[in-house]
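User: Need the bound-state model for zinc ion:
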Amino acid sequence: MPLVTGGAILSAARAGKYGVGAFNTNNLEFTQAILETAEKLRSPVILQISEGARKYAGTENLAHLIADMASRVTVPVAIHQDHGSSLEICKSAIAAGFTSVMIDASHDPFEENVRITKEVVEYAHAHGVTVEAELGRLGGIEEHVNVSAEDAFLTDPEEAARFIELTGVDYLAIAIGTSHGAYKGKGRPFIDHARIEKIAALTPIPLVMHGASGVPQWLTDRFKASGGEIGEAAGIHDDDLKRSTQYGIAKVNIDTDLRLAFTTAVREVLLKNPAEFDPRKILTPAKEMMKEISAHRMQVLGSAGQA
Ligand SMILES: [Zn+2]
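Assistant: Bound-state model below.
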């Protein structure tokens, strides 16, 4: 089917109390793995593209590939600009056919964040595209965004309600304890469930959780067993994810999990078959492992069977 907006997918998710995975993609194999899994599990899905992914693959190359593949699946698909840093980035994403954009001015003061977000909302809505913004600050590293733990702060519920009213934004990323990347602290990462509940009680719009990879133990074990190097990594527990969708988290960003799955499978193939140099045979197991990871996430989030 044709692409739909992020707003269409996420409003249904918030109303139905389930979450939809927003998986980062960079290339053909990631896109195939995500879309084939969504189709098989009857799950709506969001494919998101960072500014780095646009540079890597070419904005039109990637957007047109996804739109074409999405036209041949029968579940709702949206293409989302992940962490857009300016109005210009969002405009060029919309010109390339994205149906959802994020403007991330969360590092600016509140009034400036409101001003920039409002500008993007006005432009995007005039073009039939829905918008995500962020309030509060997550820790961790994501391309141009690098926030130390001391600089991270959690979203204030009253401020969130005011921000939504002032900007007309369609969905809001909130800081509730998650961070970007594979390192989310020792043990089970803390999620401020009470804060999610308070924010959700003040607004009907879908809420967004960034840094929501699961980083399963079996995956980091296999990554290490195949020669990969990774420190003490921990992801968001399945129960925490499920619980958050009951209050209002509707969009759940997942990047690290698929990167780790891809790299682990490639490492294993190359280690086991030193004579192999057919890229198709090297990348097929990577695709399969990404499918396994994304299927599990769709089941945990409850989006499986919703389309
Ligand atoms: Zn993010």
